[in-house]
Amino acid sequence: MIQFADETTRLQVREMWKTVFGDPDDYMEVYFRHKYRDETTLLYMEGDKAVASLQMLPYRFTFCETEIPVIYLAGVSTLPEYRRKGYVRQLLIKSFEEAERKDVPLMLLVPQEEWLLRFYDRYGFAQTFDAGTEALPSLKVLLEKYPDDLYAAFRGFNALFRQKDMTVQKSFDDFRAMVEEAALYDFPAKRNLIGMARVIDAERLLSLFAACYKQKSFSIRVYDELLGNNNASFTVMDGKVERTFPVDRSKPILTTGIRALAQLLLGYHISKKGEPFSTLFPEKEPQMHFMLE
Questions:
Q1: Is-contact 238 272, C-beta < 8 A?
Q2: Which pLDDT tens digit goes with each residue over 143-190?
Q3: Whole-angstrom distance between the N-terminal and C-terminal Cα of the chain?
Q4: What residues are paired with 88 via a beta bridge?
């Protein structure tokens, strides 16, 4: 049975995290104080025991020059003795339903190991963020620039990233958690993270794309094996999107799966996709960083 966490299961979630990920207690204290919420934590229960869980952390993401809500998946885990029973699959599907219910059009995650790229691909995620090679601006330097004024340091941090398209944005509360986590390890150098995206609402994202790139005009057929609402044909024209049936054949007709659509919309390695995609979708450099990874 799937349910949200509550005060009776909170300790089980923390113990599961420790068992599966083995993180130090001081890191877990920072994470669970700042990020954990019962209402964003899904559990798979066997009787009164939580045996699998995931957390749906809310963030903002700049997409086509507009900030949208996204869900960042964290803590996806199953206790060792309950694996290979499909519990995580059921939790992921439920998380998609929750994203739809909350009008969240996009989900993100950071795969901590390479094999997880293939695992999450099964559920419609695609790699849309590359690992960085250069260090990001130092939180320690920012704090030294604004001693005893954490909010001023946040404003300095915010100024570096708020105007960047295809970038995960941070609130002041996020920044405070980032600083506490970094301080545990003497502020190590941080880089952009490998990340994946999952389109939850293709029509909404295409609408934002169309509004940003009013000169673009095409029809696209989208296939999604898990979310039926995304299985549709769309026409992009004059800054708007319409569901079309049959496809408007006066426009370039594209066909794509939900994984490729995420890469197209986020501008991920578009130059490698060839025509007509490289003409219709602009190349971007999506960024995800400082996620308490």
A1: no
A2: 999 999 999 999 999 999 999 999 999 999 999 999 999 999 999 999
A3: 29
A4: none
Q: What does CATH list as the number for 2-104?
A: 3.40.630.30
Asked whether this chain's domains 2-104 and 202-280 adopt the same fold, the reply is no
CB under 8 A, 24+ apart: contacts of 5-14 = 5/38, 5/39, 5/41, 5/42, 5/43, 5/50, 5/53, 6/38, 7/38, 9/38, 9/43, 9/45, 9/50, 10/36, 10/38, 12/43, 12/49, 12/50, 13/41, 13/43, 13/50, 13/53, 13/75
- The sign of the torsion formed by the CA atoms of 97, 102, 107, 108 equals negative
Distances 281 to 25, 212, 253 between C-alpha atoms, Å: 45, 11, 14
* Integer Cα distance of 64 and 282 in angstroms: 10
Domain edges within the chain: 2-104, 139-190, 202-280
pLDDT tens figures, 23-56: 999 999 999 999 999 999 999 999 999 999 999 9
Distance (Å, whole) CA 179 – CA 127: 27
Residue type, 202: A
CB 183 within 8 A of CB 73: no
The tokens of 176 are what? 């405070």
> What whole-number distance in Å separates Cα of residue 215 and Cα of residue 232?
22
pLDDT digits (tens, 9 = 90+) for 234-289: 999 999 999 976 555 565 589 999 999 999 999 999 999 999 999 999 999 999 99
Which homologous superfamily does the CATH classification assign to the domain defined by 202-280? SCP2 sterol-binding domain (3.30.1050.10)
CB 104 within 8 A of CB 71: yes
Express each pLDDT in 50-106 by its tens digit: 999 999 999 999 999 999 999 999 999 999 999 999 999 999 999 999 999 999 999
Distance CA 251, CA 218 (A): 5
Pairing of strands 106-109, 49-63: unpaired
